[in-house]
Every structure is written in C-alpha cells, then in structure tokens.
Amino acid sequence: MNRNFVVAIDGTSGSGKTTTAKKVAEHFGWVYLETGATYRAVAYVVLKQGKDPRKESEVTQVLKGLRLDVKCSEKGQRTFVNGEDVTDYLRKDEIDKAVTPVSKMKVVREWLVGVQRKISRNQNVVVEGRDIGTIVFPDADLKIYMDAELEIRARRRKKQKGNTVSLDEVKKDLKRRDYHDSTRSESPLKKAPDAFFLDTTSLSIEGQVDWVVSKVKQLNESITSI
Ligand code: DC
C-alpha cells in the first residue's frame, strides 16, 4: 500500500470495536487509536484537579494547561497527561461516570478532535470511537459501524469485568451509555451514511476481524487498480 489509509470504526459500547480495531491494526502493522481513552484522560485530569466534570467553565480551565499525548504502536496504546502515563487508571468506575458529561462538551470535543487528527497524521491508522466516520475523519477510506444486541454486549462486558459487577448492573450501564452517546447534541453516536454496518451479535472476534480485514483488502485492490 503506498498511501495513508484511514479505517474508521464506530459503534456502541461492547459491540467489539476496540478489540477488532486493535487486531485489524496488528494484522496490517498499522497504528491503532482508541479515542475513548482521550475522553477518559480529560475526565481523569478533571477529577485529579478536584474540578466538577459537569461544569463547562471548570473543564475549560483544565484543558488550558493540558498536554495530552498518545503513544500508539501495533501493540496498543498508552495515554499520557502532562507526561504522566495514566493508561491504567482510565477504566476505573469514577472515570466511567465522569467521562459522560465531559464528552458532551463542545469545547472538549473540538479540542480532542484536533489532538486525534494530529496523532493520526501521515500514518496508516485504524481509529475507533463514536464520531470517527462522521466528524473526525469524514473522508476515511473505510468506515464501519458496529453494533450487537444488548444482551450479548452485556455478557461480553461482564466477562471482561469478572465478578465485580452483576449482569444486570452491566446492562444498566450499557443502556445509560447508549442513551447519552446517541442523544447528546454534540457529535452523537450515529452511523455515517457511507459506513458499512456490522452486526456482531453472532460473530466471534476472529469473525469480526476477518470481515474488516477483507473489506480493507477489497478496497485497497480497487484503489490500486484505478
Ligand atoms: O469507548 P469508551 O467507552 O472508552 O469511551 C469513553 C467515553 O467517551 C464514552 O462515554 C463515549 C465517549 N466517546 C466519545 O464521545 N467519542 C469518541 N470518539 C470516543 C468516546
């Protein structure tokens, strides 16, 4: 492949997009960018500085002094705020809660879209999130929107979290996220009109990865034959 290639993967929480994006990037030796981690990193700093994640003025103050770096490789992503590696804190429950109001703010979204575009510049990338095909990379070479039935997504999440939560709690949390992600006024989660829809309800991870890999190959063949 002799041009930079952008694959945009959007979808609901638990649809399998993170694992799929990582494995597709690994398959081609490309960079993988998990944009959810960038929203989580902002939420982390807001809490660390004792600010209120629901107050736009306080969050805006935090952004002013913030340096956010992401080191991407085929192996995965580490996220740094002001030089500190915060990757291992980003999945904590308090971040799960604080990231919802933070990710609704226009000021945060604009700031992070800039960061995400900069990170992805001049590389072959698989970028995963909620607004990648619609806002961050509307000209992506390949767009995929993933979803699965709630029951299946909840079972997958429960497996990742182990016995720390019940299946009902996981389902409740997924419904809450679906609602907030798809109804917010700024960059709501939705399928781009030119995205392929992938229902992962009855697919294994390997099945999902194979499906995306074959789409990339098909597209590359059609691009190089022009
Ligand atoms: O994918 P995730 O669960 O790590 O995302 C964390 C939060 O960030 C989630 O509430 C949705 C939000 N998010 C977003 O609004 N836009 C993105 N491109 C990625 C994530």
Q: What are the main properties of this structure?
A:
Rossmann fold; 226 residues; alpha/beta; 9 helices; single chain; 2 domains; 51% helix; 3-stranded antiparallel beta sheet; 5-stranded parallel beta sheet; binds 2'-deoxycytidine-5'-monophosphate; 8 strands
Explain the overall architecture:
With 226 residues, this protein is α/β, with parallel strands linked by helices. It folds into two domains: 1-30 and 123-216, Rossmann fold, CATH 3.40.50.300; 33-122, P-loop containing nucleotide triphosphate hydrolases (Rossmann fold, 3-Layer(aba) Sandwich), CATH 3.40.50. It has helices at 17-28, 35-48, 56-64, 93-103, 106-120, 132-136, 150-161, 167-183, 205-224, and strands at residues 6-11, 31-34, 68-73, 76-81, 84-85, 125-129, 142-147, 196-199. It has a five-stranded parallel β-sheet with strand order 2-6-1-7-8, sandwiched between helices. A three-stranded antiparallel β-sheet has the order 3-4-5, covered by helices on one side. Helix 2 crosses helix 4 and helix 7 (150-161) crosses helix 8 (167-183). The longest helix has 20 residues, at 205-224. The mean pLDDT is 92. Bound molecules: 2'-deoxycytidine-5'-monophosphate. 2'-deoxycytidine-5'-monophosphate is lined by residues 13, 35-36, 39-40, 99-100, 103, 129-131, 177, 181.
